[in-house]
Design a protein that fits this description.
It is a single chain. The chain has 178 residues and is α/β, with parallel strands linked by helices. It has 2 domains: 30 residues, no CATH class; 142 residues, Rossmann fold (3-Layer(aba) Sandwich). The protein is built from 6 helices and 8 strands, in the order αββαβββαββαβαα. The strands form 4 sheets. It has a two-stranded parallel sheet with strand order 1-6. Helix 4 crosses helix 6. The N and C termini lie far apart (41 Å). It binds uridine-5'-diphosphate. Uridine-5'-diphosphate binds next to helix 2 and strand 3.
Amino acid sequence: MNPIGIRSCYDEGKRCAETLFFDYHRQHQLDIKVIRIFNTYGPRMHPSDGRVVSNFIVQALRGENITIYGDGQQTRSFCYVDDLVEAMIRMMDTENGFTGPINLGNPGEFTMIELAEKVISLVGSKSKLVHKPLPPDDPKQRKPDISLAQSKLDWTPKVNLDDGLRETVAYFRQTLDK
Ligand code: UDP
């Protein structure tokens, strides 16, 4: 991790939060549950949230260029919000003393080019792909190992990317129409 880069307040903020939670657990026996959320998306994201899924859908719906940062070969693994919420509830229901950390996400892996093509086709958009500079410290890959969640929470994500994107596109279509 880069402790002083433009993403550091986000990256280090998460790390520091985990540290403090575990200190409270050790010092005050606070019952804690630590989850690590990987790229989650779905209806009710803010249109200018800036994350890749909302950016691409909003751009496609408006017929604007789709902004691919870098060559678009970096991959992400996208988890639909309903799957994440289900896992969170299952985690909260685990026995006292089971703290995690536990990875939650959908391991299915896609390049940003693949994501852009899916979005364009679901929206039926004429948008073109344009390349923009890759932000510093942008990870090449993010893919959760969810074996602990699978065994401990008896959970696995159910919503594939196409179905989740369809719901999300429907939401943004409605929101942007208003
Ligand atoms: N990204 C992109 N175009 C955008 C927004 C993001 O190509 O309009 C890329 C970004 O560079 C990153 C990936 O999509 O490689 C996921 O970005 P996001 O901010 O959604 O999640 P994170 O980088 O935190 O995993």
